[in-house]
């Protein structure tokens, strides 16, 4: 009986080794060969050679540990103005005293729970936090510019 168990273990080890070797050969052919892994210094040097974004709407991500930036509207394009909150960003515009949310995007760790995009006297989006407090953003118009209404 011991011989049978020993033979079974030997066969299982041989089959496993053959499978690992075959997968090693096939994986390169199926997925392509992977390039060398870069060190942090090599990655920084490679990133430094890339052109910097020139768009005014491109901003670096804000770590969750820093105080959130104020959510005042910033000058934007003819399509709307950019409003940033800790829960996400919104592009809004005003026409004829009515506000319209053109687009909205939750920040990392948030999702959109509800939207009232307008056009109307008020427009609203709620960013729901995976952990922590939700962020509700209500906007209205002051002249032809979106403005934040009430605390949030």
What can you tell me about this protein's structure?
The chain is built from 2 helices and 8 strands, in the order ααββββββββ. The protein has 152 residues and is of the alpha+beta class. Among the domains are: 1-30; 74-148, no CATH class. Strands 1-2-3-4 form a 4-stranded antiparallel β-sheet, with no helix packed on it. It has a 4-stranded antiparallel β-sheet with strand order 5-6-7-8, with no helix packed on it. A hairpin with a 6-residue loop joins strand 5 and strand 6 (123-129). Mean pLDDT is 76; it is low at 55-77.
TL;DR?
With 152 residues, this protein is α+β, with helices and mostly antiparallel strands. Among the domains are: 1-30; 74-148, no CATH class. It has helices spanning 2-31, 40-48; strands spanning 74-77, 80-85, 88-95, 98-106, 110-116, 123-129, 135-142, 145-148.
